[in-house]
Amino acid sequence: MYWFGKEMKGTMGNLEVFRDSFPTFEKMISDFKEIGVKTITITEPFILTNAKKWEEAKAKKSFSN
Fold first, then answer.
1. What are the b/e assignments for 21-36, b being 16+ CB within 10 Å?
2. Among 43, 46, 51, 62, which is disulfide-ready with 57 (CB 3.0 to 4.6 Å)?
C-alpha cells in the first residue's frame, strides 16, 4: 500500500488501497489475523483539503478540534 500515493503530489492523504498492488487486501489482512499477526493499516491518518475524501469527511464531521 502506498500511503502517500504512487506519486506523492496530488495523492497524499487519499486513504486508499491500490488494488493493482493489493488486489485482495481484505483477505490479506484476514489471513494475517488468522496467524496471529496484528495490523494497523493507517498509522498517521490525515486528509488534505484537496484529497478525494475531504468533502465527505467534512460532511460527516470526522474532524476534531
1. eeeeeeeeeeeeeeee
2. 62
